[in-house]
């Protein structure tokens, strides 16, 4: 899979050249809420803010090769993972290069607050005038449609030419909040308009940790579904392992203990450690506290004796970068999951659309590479908008539907967690919807019910809710997918447009490159459909909730399951993809029976379940006990 240093440069240049924008998009597109933020003018010269200066890796090609060796059972470097100090010495900028940056900041009056232990992040505080002088970042104040104030550069920023070899990106000049979306959803999300009720809360009875009731599943049910119980029978419960959660909202730890207690799990009352990065995330339902709560409950419930470290940061550009770099630089967790993200496409500079930067994708990649080199296995939710990830951008349907994927799940060093619907009889208002077998999650399976009971006008009423998946047009096909049957290329005729609901005028935004041989996702999927979903206990959301789902469940569940696998093998596992895909391609060793279970039914509104790989459920689901046997 190696993503070579020169290849990254080529990718960024090609992506910039491929971006063809006919005209500036209407102002109504400028925010993800669908309303243009109000430009309040230039930021006061003496207004202060703190930024995260992301530095470039050295020897990226050698790092990729080292990571490949650590997960090749025939290599003498197998599972010889690096410490943070070793990583920094080999692959981070030298102390002299870092000094060049800090001297430059000091010369512009910008104070250095901290250099992360991995040598890849410099936290610095300065005024608007100082950042304008240093990075040509002309900051403006804005107010979004929700009345929240923020600031960002009116025309981006530039790194001085003599520091271009060291600085990758300056994160935090844009302080807009709610930049990223949690990948969880509830059964009632769209059903309320039809008078359809969500599933009732059912708690485990007797001494059971499971309910056996779709919509009220617990982690005990997950253990039943995916071959975890044989590991428990061997005493493998996460002892000696530490689970990491990266999130953008704070939560009440007492909610997690209440959940575990209610399903009969005996856990240490001090197992959770909270680390508030950049001051931490907000604590409210609107901020996504329920997301953090379910991440902790699910991962910790599957590995009840594991310790847990929850890293939460503000939901901002800098917060999302810093939360990963902090977790990986601390190097205390063995597995790490995140259930937040945004469409990969939004990292392209599209006029009128709230975009990040291609540098952000590379910033993620660097830290995920470090995690792999240190043996940390990383998981990310693939999204809940099926194959049409940009449908998470409001106002839909003013935007055209295009096939896109979610970031950071699209990164080749991350296990992208997709979604399935398990076999069930789903009780609805006018009868039962029968799902005969576990299948790719996509709510188009409700179409016959909707048409029969509400009319043809309600066909696709639930579009595009389902498990995220598709083809990245930024990350090339990694080596571990090169010999996998079913890997796809990007589809043609994917043109992103916006139609003004007031005037009917359509504006062209972007053409997604066709036939790109890109990284496919998801990798592994687990039950994520709210109608066959889960219980969550969340104070900020009012207590017990049934019918909760989304790939936000699959990601932490895989986190907890692989913490068990890590304990069983008495080692961190590092990059999991080669073992899961079985066929390594050139330079990789084949291993039979990697413990995956094929999903051959259903679809995520475009990619269907077939024999072999498909960007619907990926390789399929897993059998945890078989996975342990697959790793020697």
TrEMBL record:
Transmembrane segments: none annotated. Residues 1-30 form the signal peptide. It comes from the Bacteria. It holds the Pfam family Peptidase_S8. GO terms for biological process: proteolysis. Keywords: Calcium, Hydrolase, Metal-binding, Protease, Serine protease, Signal, Zymogen. Residues 216-632 form the Peptidase S53 domain. The keyword DNA damage does not apply. The keyword Hydrolase applies. This is Peptidase S53. The lineage of its organism: Bacteria, Pseudomonadati, Pseudomonadota, Betaproteobacteria, Burkholderiales.
